[in-house]
Design brief:
5-stranded parallel beta sheet, 24% strand, UDP-N-acetylmuramoyl-L-alanine:D-glutamate ligase, Rossmann fold, elongated, 17 helices, alpha/beta, 38% helix
């Protein structure tokens, strides 16, 4: 779940405020030849592709720019290309999406990096790379840095997309990071290679497990070693955060507070091309509008889950990310309902983050406006709201044999769907006192139709420094009144 869901939704639906990001790195053109395979060649034991169509998209650092544009941000891209047809095609693609390309310089001695992928029946069969992997000339690097410095005053963040093709050499990285940080700009890096020293002083880097393993000299299959290396590297390089992408295991955010793991959302994976570009772009977007770091990592994880379900170098779109958030929210609503043991783990995590826990309880049979308003008002007294829900047996004991009208699992699930509710736990006792003692809420909420001395658990909560809040109720809203209108003579009490 997001820590600040309203702020996340506002960012995604509002195009991240149209913030401006400067992307620097290895620009590429990705070409695709699409077709189907129905036979093996008689000339050699290779499949024969019947070509249907050819497409071209911006790749590498240019794909990061595509992702940012898709999320609603404004983008300036910088890097080095050749002076060839691929360069003209790449620049045209970027400019058609509204990306500023004035900081793209050319080098006639090297080709524009071009990757051609042959895809048969949604399966990549072959990749052909046309490129020159070598450090750019130092004079060219100085010219590029000068072009960047002219633009620092116009952007909200700087993003380095390193594909180890030779653009982001050590001196250039150092110059960019130093100049950008001096202006208060966050610098985010998608790293490559074994030497992460050139990223010293950046705000955030986003290696995958293979990249971190190479840089730290650890086994990529040893998760504990990777996480330990991530913590050491973050501290050694003076980073605020390191976001480690773990494929099917999700992501791990490493910062001064330690390691926070965020699991992946299960999806069918067709192609991982560009997933790292999507992660770094989403992190930059979240950082640009001041999202909580954990929420930013969570959002980037969701975005990556979308693009791996596509074939080819893919970019995220804001509406796709919004849909992924909605899908996850539906799953998480069910996850809000759980056993006390699981709830206590979550309560401890909330408290570790300094969040105040509010507890209330009730039958919540036939949920209505009065219930919803009460729960919303109760949650305003803290950061998390836990609802203790009477089981069907305990409702019958309280309200008679014909109640509840709605079964306990259905009542729990409907409560969990409310944005104000963070957790629902069933209890079967006459009162919730044992639940209150186990959870030890910071705030105990009850309706204003009670007096404080009549609230079960009030003395206990106050004994550990908590508060008891009597929440105003909505007039003329009760389950009994609704039942009375539907079935005269049935039930008493709310």
């Amino acid at each position: 779940m997001f820590q600040q869901p309203e702020k996340v939704y506002k960012g995604v639906h509002g195009g991240f405020g149209g913030r401006r990001v400067l992307v620097v790195g290895d620009l590429m053109l990705d070409r695709y030849q699409w077709g189907n395979v129905r036979r093996i060649s008689p000339e050699a034991p290779v499949p024969v592709l019947r070509l249907d169509r050819e497409t071209e998209v911006a790749g590498g650092a240019a794909n990061v720019a595509r992702n940012l544009v898709g999320l609603g941000l404004r983008v300036c891209v910088a890097g080095i290309t050749g002076q060839d047809q691929a360069q003209a095609c790449l620049l045209a693609l970027l400019e058609a999406q509204g990306v500023e390309t004035g900081a793209v310089l050319s080098d006639p001695t090297r080709p524009t990096t071009t990757k051609t992928r042959v895809v048969g029946d949604r399966q990549q069969m072959l990749r052909i790379d046309a490129e020159r992997i070598a450090p750019i000339d130092r004079e060219l690097a100085k010219c590029l840095l000068a072009a960047l410095e002219e633009r620092f005053a116009q952007v909200d963040a700087v993003l380095l997309s390193d594909y180890a093709k030779g653009v982001l050499i050590g001196d250039l990285c150092t110059g960019i990071i130093t100049a950008a940080r001096a202006r208060g700009l966050p610098v985010l890096v998608d790293p490559k290679g074994s030497d992460f020293e050139r990223y010293r002083g950046a705000t955030t880097i986003t290696p995958n497990r293979a990249e971190l393993a190479v840089a730290a000299g650890v086994d990529s299959d040893d998760l504990d070693a990777l996480l330990g290396a991530a913590e050491r590297l973050r501290e050694e390089l003076g980073l605020e955060q390191l976001l480690l992408t773990l494929g099917e295991l999700g992501v791990a955010l490493v910062d001064a507070t330690g390691v926070n793991r965020i699991p992946a959302v299960a999806r069918e994976v067709f192609d991982v091309s560009g997933a790292g570009d999507t992660v770094i772009a989403t992190v930059a977007a979240g950082r640009a509008v001041g999202l909580d770091p954990i929420d930013t990592a969570h959002l980037a994880n969701l975005a990556a889950g979308v693009v791996v379900g596509k074939v080819g170098t893919a970019a995220i779109a804001a509406e796709e990310l919004a849909a992924a958030i909605a899908d996850e929210a539906a799953l998480e609503q069910g996850a809000k309902v759980g056993e006390l043991g699981d709830l206590l783990i979550r309560v401890r995590q909330w408290r570790d983050r300094g969040e105040r826990v509010v507890f209330t309880n009730g039958c919540f049979d036939l949920l209505h406006l009065g219930h919803v308003t009460y729960l919303e008002r109760a949650r305003r007294h803290g950061h998390r709201l836990v609802v203790g829900l009477n089981t069907d047996r305990s409702v019958r004991a309280l309200k008679g044999a014909e109640r509840p009208l709605i079964g306990e699992q259905d009542r729990a699930r409907v409560l969990a769907a409310l944005a104000a509710v963070d957790a629902v736990v069933l209890f079967d006792a006459e009162t919730p006192i044992e639940l209150i003692r186990a959870i030890r809420p910071d705030v105990l909420a009850k309706g204003a139709d009670y007096t404080e001395d009549a609230v079960i658990g009030a003395a206990e909560v106050k004994s550990w420094g908590g508060q008891v809040i009597l929440v105003p109720l909505v007039d003329d809203r009760s389950t009994s009144a609704i039942i009375g209108r539907m079935r005269p003579g049935l039930g008493s009490g709310d």
